[in-house]
Amino acid sequence: MLGIIGGSGLTAFPELKDKQERVIQTPYGATSSAIIVGSLHDQTVAFLARHGNPHVIAPHSVNYQANIWALHSIGVTAIIAVNAVGGISKQQDTGVISLPHQLIDYTWGRRHSFSNTAGFPLLHIDFTHPYTETLRQTLLQLAYRDQLYVLDSAVYAVTQGPRLETAAEIHRLANEGCDIVGMTAMPEAALARELALDYACIALVVNKAAGLSDELITFNAMEKVMHDGMHQIKHLIAAYCKHLASR
Ligand code: HPA
């Protein structure tokens, strides 16, 4: 089953049909929201709102362990994660969608592994390539086919938040090779890998990162961009479901 984790701007997926709400108990506590299981182009899909619905849970307070464990426990084998981010590199302008191929984790203090919890052994996963390349490539091909403008790679800097960065922090991230910055890609991607789930991220730039534009970064301005971008992202997810159905 395909899992979709929606971030800021994607707290519900009304296009799903025959929806059922599943509240899953996990050894790690409660998930961010009930999981909505429904169908999209004849594919069963499990949707989870990362920040809750309504959007109230801060990035550092998301129970990533519970979310990933719960999706796995109901039979999810692949996850498409949707993340709103700030743009650092030139081509990552506001409104641009990309499929990151790498990340750098700057978060701290999050429960970031299943190792030595709830009966799990010590896990040293290979995380050389944090995103599942086959899933990423399939999404890219579908985006090209449908003439969606999607960048084929990006290095995602994952910051702790919930505050936005300083201009100097963004300067440093740029020097360290980061193209986009967000707060929620980790530990989600690593936990998914620990449970051997396929995992890819669709990132939407909702603002230029701190110090890169003269405008104040406000949630209102971000919301406008999210609205248009999510439309395209939902198109891509629907195309992926159609692709699964045609296999
Ligand atoms: N920084 C970090 N996270 C974000 C940003 C940003 O500029 N925009 C959206 N999520």
Summarize the structure.
This protein is of the alpha/beta class and 247 residues long. It has five helices and eleven strands, in the order ββββαβββαββαβαβα.
What report would you give on this structure?
The protein has 247 residues and is of the alpha/beta class. The protein is 27% helix and 24% strand. Strands 1, 2, 3, 4, 5, 6, 7, 8, 9, 10 and 11 form an 11-stranded mixed sheet that branches. Strand 3 (35-40) and strand 4 (43-49) form a beta hairpin. The model has no long low-confidence stretch (mean pLDDT 96). Hypoxanthine (HPA) binds next to strand 5, strand 10 and strand 11. Hypoxanthine is lined by residues 84-86, 159, 164-165, 181-183, 206-207, 209.
Mean pLDDT: 96
Bound molecules: hypoxanthine
Counting DSSP E segments of at least 2 residues, the number of strands comes to 11
Count the helices. How many?
5
The chain-level structural class is alpha/beta
Poorly predicted runs are none
Provide the β-strand percentage band.
Answer: 15-25%
- Order of helices and strands, N to C? EEEEHEEEHEEHEHEH
